[in-house]
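Course assignment 3, question 2. Fill in each field.
Student: A.L.
Task: Predict the tertiary structure for the chain below.
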Amino acid sequence: MDLIVRTPKVPKAGETVVGTSFDRAPGGKGANQAMAAARLGAAVTMVGRVGDDLFGLDQIESLGGAGVETRFIVKDSEAPTGVGSITLEESGQNRIVIVPGANMRCRPGDVDQAQEAFGQADIILLQFEIPEEVNEYVLRKAAEAGVPVILNPAPARPIDDSLLALVAAITPNESEAEFLTGIAIHTADDAKRAADTLRARGARRVVITLGEKGALLVDDDGTELVPSWPVDVVDTTAAGDAFNGALATGVGAGLDWKAALRLANAVGALAVTKLGAQPSMPQRAAVEAFLKERS
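Answer field:
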């Protein structure tokens, strides 16, 4: 659950500032990505954990209302629902502190309980707000079943080369790519070097998101910068989640990677024009209109 404070400026150490508003909105990377995909029309099943508390009930209701299958979301009685404390500046930039709560109590057994959905999946989308052992378990099961996996390495943490080789694509943003490779990204050339480093470690395909510049795709077919579009920014909190949910939707529906990235850039752009994480995920009709106006 995201707890969002808007403020003209972020306080310095020991300083108190007066904010302009407070909002509460369902969030969490996996849930945001599931919401983004569902609102684009994908059939989405979410596997994860919330606390057996008010925030958890709100989260399940929000996802279910968008059409996400929630029966494999466990209500954990021993840990609270995860919380994100978000300080949002007038510029739209944010600073976020996450308390994972029940998210980090996900277990491989939760995946086994969702075997029915796993076997029917066209694509699987993973992120790093659950334990490493669960992601590794899913990656190995997906490889055996021949189901492609998109891995969004956020929040950034180390990943073994053997696991990189199991993903169809890894999708870091600039700071995550720097964490994984040690290469500071200021230009598209920097991003290309970081992507090449990840490919040398085993990744088949790398997509580095570059904010308003778009997304850099590097794979066996070459390198391509897929541009985004300028928009009026309100809140950047879930831009990456919107992008990844849309990318998985596009690839799962059979689009080539360049076309899927164009869709993902549009969804990410629209998401930053509204406040909140899940509430900002655009409906399919809005995305189609956005793309039509810019074709």
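Instructor remarks: The chain has a mean pLDDT of 95. The first strand starts at residue 2 and ends at 7.
Grade: pending
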